[in-house]
Structure to design on (115 residues):
């Protein structure tokens, strides 16, 4: 059974950094395109960044320069490095990936930015 498991969330002060990981496990042939989304309380889930299998990246404008998405295909893992965090970045962060031909979602990891 294929699973995506996020980790790395937590409480951080404004201006701080966190690195989220999304590890795919199970019977996997190919981890294709992947993306990070987030959902703040009372708001809709929104795209943060995405990455192709070959490493092409795309960011929502408000995240450019602060967030970096990357991947390690050998480890079937996708990362999100988040710097200069702001209180408005507080949300549950979800990983989504195309594995073989299906789209999978992780369970989410909470990121709280507060002093």
């Amino acid at each position: 059974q294929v699973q995506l498991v996020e980790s790395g969330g937590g409480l951080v002060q404004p201006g701080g950094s966190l690195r989220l990981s999304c590890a795919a496990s199970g019977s996997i042939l190919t981890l294709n395109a992947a993306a990070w989304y987030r959902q703040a309380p009372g708001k809709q889930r929104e795209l943060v960044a995405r990455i192709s299998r070959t490493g092409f990246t795309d960011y929502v404008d408000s995240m450019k320069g602060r967030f970096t998405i990357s991947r390690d295909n050998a480890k079937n893992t996708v990362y999100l490095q988040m710097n200069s965090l702001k209180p408005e970045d507080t949300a549950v962060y979800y990983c989504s990936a195309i594995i073989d031909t299906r789209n999978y979602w992780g369970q989410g990891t909470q990121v709280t930015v507060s002093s």
Remarks:
- The CA atoms of residues 48 and 61 lie 9 Å apart.
- The chain is about 0% helix and 55% strand.
- The first strand starts at residue 3 and ends at 7.
- The mean pLDDT is 95.
